[in-house]
């Protein structure tokens, strides 16, 4: 079921009003602004005349479960977070390299608070608690909390566009609300997340996003 922007925003406002917690509220606020900005953004399209890709404003994206892959273009950058438009018109929002929201995937991640995971990545590993907000079959907000362990896996060679990079890989195993999932992150020497595979929802599974 495709979720309209109006329904999504209404659900977020309702959640905030019901006291979803300071951490979740911060994540929701971070996700709302860029998504409002992308409401009329043009979808990235494949085929046709080739358009030069700016590595500074684009990423490669892949959602294996949906058979979607290609280049995602940054359509909003509000400083705290960035929203990208991917193949077919879906959008996803990243905050400091962490996936915090998707739209247009049918079963979307409405918002996520992954700040503890990001802190664990900076620390070289550790434990974290993250919170995801999704919609159920009746368009009601469902809040799920997960206990996670972030583990360093050492250096790993990865390809980013036309270049190769040896990045530090971290795996994040999360469990809670009847779900278990494993995210992966690749960090450069400066500690920036240059590539990741992050969980969206049970139906969508994982979204892989990488620098070009």
Structure, explained:
This protein is α+β, with helices and mostly antiparallel strands. Helices cover 17% and strands 48% of the residues. The chain is built from 3 helices and 12 strands, in the order H-H-E-E-E-E-E-E-H-E-E-E-E-E-E. It has a 12-stranded antiparallel sheet with strand order 5-4-3-2-1-12-11-10-9-8-7-6, sandwiched between helices. Strand 11 and strand 12 form a beta hairpin. Helix 1 packs antiparallel against helix 2. It is globular. It starts with a helix and ends with a strand. The N terminus is likely disordered.
Topology:
Layout: H1 5-17, H2 22-37, E1 58-63, E2 68-77, E3 82-85, E4 91-95, E5 98-103, E6 109-113, H3 115-122, E7 126-135, E8 141-160, E9 163-176, E10 179-187, E11 193-199, E12 206-211
Antiparallel strand pairs: 1-2, 1-12, 2-3, 3-4, 4-5, 6-7, 7-8, 8-9, 9-10, 10-11, 11-12
Helix pairs in contact: 1-2
Please describe the structure with a list of short key phrases separated by commas or semicolons.
disordered N terminus; 212 residues; 12 strands; alpha+beta; 3 helices; 12-stranded antiparallel sheet; globular
């Amino acid at each position: 079921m495709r979720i309209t922007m109006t329904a999504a925003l209404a659900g977020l406002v309702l959640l905030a009003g019901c006291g979803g917690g300071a951490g979740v509220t911060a994540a929701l606020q971070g996700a709302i602004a860029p998504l409002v900005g992308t409401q009329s953004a043009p979808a990235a399209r494949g085929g046709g005349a080739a358009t030069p890709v700016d590595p500074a404003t684009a990423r490669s994206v892949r959602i294996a479960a949906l058979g979607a892959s290609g280049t995602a273009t940054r359509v909003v950058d509000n400083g705290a977070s960035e929203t990208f438009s991917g193949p077919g018109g879906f959008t996803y929002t990243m905050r400091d390299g962490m996936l915090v929201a998707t739209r247009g995937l049918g079963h979307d991640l409405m918002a996520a608070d992954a700040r503890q995971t990001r802190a664990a990545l900076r620390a070289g590993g550790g434990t974290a608690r993250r919170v995801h907000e999704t919609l159920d079959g009746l368009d009601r907000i469902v809040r799920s909390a997960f206990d996670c362990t972030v583990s360093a896996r050492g250096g790993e060679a990865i390809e980013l566009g036309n270049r190769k990079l040896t990045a530090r890989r971290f795996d994040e195993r999360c469990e809670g609300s009847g779900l278990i999932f494993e995210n992966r992150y690749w960090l450069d020497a400066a500690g920036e997340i240059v590539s990741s595979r992050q969980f969206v929802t049970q139906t969508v599974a994982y979204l892989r996003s990488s620098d070009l």
